[in-house]
Amino acid sequence: MPLDLPKDIRSLLESTCSAYNATLIDAVLRGTKERMLLELYVDTPDGISLEQCEKINRALLETAETHPFIDAIRSIEVSSPGVDRPLTHWWQYPRNIGRVLELSLINEETYANGSYVLLEANEQGIVCSEPKKSKISGNENTTFSFPYSEIQKAIVKISF
Question: What pLDDT, in 10s, does the model give residues 29-39?
Answer without folding.
Answer: 998 888 899 99
